[in-house]
Each structure stands twice: as C-alpha cells, then as structure tokens.
User: Fold these one by one.
Assistant:
Number 1:
Amino acid sequence: MDKKGTASVLLGAAFLMATSAIGPGFLTQTTVFTSQLAASFGFVILVSIILDIGAQMNIWRVIAVSEKRAQDIANMVLPGLGYVLAFLIVIGGLAFNIGNVGGAGLGLNVLFGITPEMGALISGIIAIAIFVIKEAGKAMDRFAQIAGFVMIGLTVYVAITSQPPLGEAVVRTFVPEKVDFLAIVTLVGGTVGGYITFSGGHRLLDAGIKGREALPQVNRSAVSAIGIASIMRIVLFLAALGIVAQGLALDPKNPPASVFQLAAGNIGYKIFGIVMWAAAITSVVGAAYTSVSFIRTFSSTLEKYHRAIIIAFIAISTIVFVLIGKPVNVLILVGALNGMILPISLGVILVAAYRTKIVGDYKHPLWLTIFGAVIVVVMAIMSGMTMFTELPKLFA
C-alpha cells in the first residue's frame, strides 16, 4: 500500500471509530449532561478524553502487535473467553443498532416529514448499499469521513449561533463547580465501550496495517479517533451551553433537537435532522461491521460470507425497528451489559500484552498498563452499580 493509501486507511479507521461513537445516544447524553452541569461539564469531557485515549491506545496497540482480532486474543488468554466476548459484542451491537436505525429514521423524519419507520427503512437500504459495493472497506472509510465532517461543520455553526460563554467554559473545564463521576463513566462507555473502540482497530487489521513497525501509525490513528469524537462532543457542549446560559429550557423529549432549534430556529431544526441522520447512519455501519468482525474468524464459512452477514445484521436491525419500534427494555438491559464489556475487553488486552505467545518479545509501556488497569477498575465498579440499579427497575 502506498503512502496515500495508508494515510487514507488510517484516517478512515479513525473516522469509523469516531462516527461509531457519535450516535443518537451521544447527542442526547452530551446535551442532557450540559443542562445538568452547565460549564462544569467541560471538566467531565476533559477527564473522559484522557481515559478514552488510555483505553483505546492499549487495545489498538495489542491488536496491531499480535496481528489478531480481540476475540482471538481473548481465546488465547483463556480458552472460550473470546466466544463470550464475541457474544456480548454482537448482542450489544444488534440491540444498539436498532436504536441507531431509529435515530436515522428520526433524522429523515425531521428533514422530509416522512414517518420514522419509513426513514429507518431508507437509511437501512443506504447502509446495506455500502457493503454491496465491491470495495466496501474504502466506501465505508470515505462515507465515515464525509459524514463526520458534515456533522462537525454544521454543529460548529449552531455553536456559534448559540453564543456560549467561552471564558466560563474554559475556567470550569479546569476548576469545576461540581464533579459528576457517573457522567464521566457514561461518556467513557459511550466513546470506547462495547464494540466502538474495536471498530477502528479491526479496520486497520483488515487493511493490513499491523505489526510492531506499524505502531507509530496505530498510535496516531487511535489518538486521532478520540480527537474527532471529542471535537464533536466539545462543539455540541458549547452549543448546548449557549442555550442553557440564556436560561432557555430544553425539551425533555428531544434535548439535542431543542438545542439546535433554539439556537438557529427552523434552519437549526433542519440541521439537527442532518446531524442526527449522519450520526445514526454511521453508527449503524460501524456497529454492523465491528459486530460481525467478532465472529468472522470462528469459521471459514463465516469469513467467506462476512459481508453477507453484515448486510443481514443491518437488515434485521431495520426490520425489528420498523415492526416493533425501539425495544426500551432490551436497550436498557444491553446498555448495562455494554458498560461491562469495556472492563472485560480491556482487562483481557492488558493480560495479553504480557503473554509472549500472543505478542512475542514486544514490551508494553508500563504507564499504559497502569492507565489501563485504573480504567478497568473504575468502569467495572460503575457498570456493576448500573446493573444493580437498572436491572431491578427493568424487571419490576
């Protein structure tokens, strides 16, 4: 692969991971937490960015050095663990994809007035079309990049229109009035939890960017991915902060839509439709690609027909949404499970980093190991608390 091709893949992997993270949940979380914490949410974003980089660099580096996907690494750490991890990722990815398809349908509903179900159907067909193309990898990379630039550009416009108090935002990012640990964990889980962090790591592997000599490129792509997602998070935070600082109330039924509408009127509402659709459709593509990448190495048949399985994955997500709408109970249950995936997957990766049969004579940086271990402990505690609080409500 020439330099231009390599650079395109590195950027594509970064955008695939970032746009997988930026979904309907991402837009809602950011807006709701801004309304609760105001300028102090900047501190939450800062801490979550640091934790995201720590988790992502650990995972992407070990995948690159071992030249294996996460499920195969897990099976080498403990036989059978890779199948458990793959099961969690696929079930989580499928459930969240139903929500992502619904978000895409809502985006087209805002733009064109069609029903969310019809919008979901059209979006599902567009997502499937990407994987029907012969050069599906390149098409996916390009689609993620274009959608990412569109989302960020339009949200920057809305942020400027809402006139946020920038000085206060900067001060409270470093000296917060209040700290919300649940918000930090929610942001970390929503950026590098579940299938999301593996989307870019597995994409680099598929494109042949692997081995110890590729580590500088892998590091750059991993940090770029967090950077892209974080730019969107910061810009959306500023847009919402401008509205909150004016004392305007957000619509609890659709907080991000009300930010765009209050900031820029009807044009802002239409911009929200574009941003919501772009965020949701790229998450549909990322979730399907990554979820299937967790099972394709288990047999030659799955490997041979992996593209058809990705298409089926998107089709099932779309049909479920169109027929029964968003299954809230399933999303809550799988949301709790998804929170548990990061400590499990990152824990496995940290153990694998010190197994010579997996990484050879590669020496994993000690600071990254310590960083990763802290993230595992914090996320395990918080996801455990979520399971105990959410599950009783679910089955009450």
Note: The chain has 17 helices and no strands.
Number 2:
Amino acid sequence: MVGTHNAAILPQKGGPLSVGERATPEPGPNTVLIEVKAVALNPVDYHQRDFGMPPVPIYPAVIGSDISGVVAKKYALAQPEGVVALPDALSFEEGAILPLAVITALTAWTTIGIPLDTKYTTQDRQAVLI
C-alpha cells in the first residue's frame, strides 16, 4: 500500500493553494525522497499558479521546488545532484529560500562564461553583481 503525506496543492489555475493529502511517491534509481520541513514560494510559482506558466499538465497539482528538509525516502522527489546539506546555522525556513536564488546566481555566473572553479581574492579587485 502506498503511503500518503500532506502537501500544498493547487486545485486549478488561479486557485488558492491548500493543504491536502497526496500519495507519497517512491524514489527511482536517480532520485531521492525528501521529508519536507519548509517550502518557499518564488515569483515563478506565482506565475505558474496565476497564469499557468510554466504550464501545469494536470490539476490538482503540487507546484514549486524551493524546499528544505531531510532525506528520508518520503514526501518530495529530488535529483541527488541538486541536494546539498543544510548548514547547522540555517533553519529549514531559511534553507527553503535558497534553491531559486542559487540557481539564478549560478546561471548568471556560467552564462557570462566564468568557470565554476574560479576563485577570487580581495586583492584581485574583481566583482560580479547578480
């Protein structure tokens, strides 16, 4: 029997998010399941809720991807390469706001051609504003 968990559910385009029960997915060979402790909503989530962009294939739906939690084989699927340890100094709520912010900065960094292994010191007098 498949287990269930509570999730923030979007019942229809433009509808309000509500908490409801969903079937807990099973991870495949290239995913992990995360017990979600906190979620964050970002501008992409609002556009998806209000305008259906990016498209939502089926309603009711669970949208968004900015979460923090514990790898525990339940609640939310994630690609393991996109999962990082949350520093002890950050709460789950603080950690949940990082995914979109970090990927935005990383995309900007790589789009302008700066190699990921680049390291600057204050003596280099280099700066990037993202």
Note: Residues 98-111 form the longest helix (14 residues).
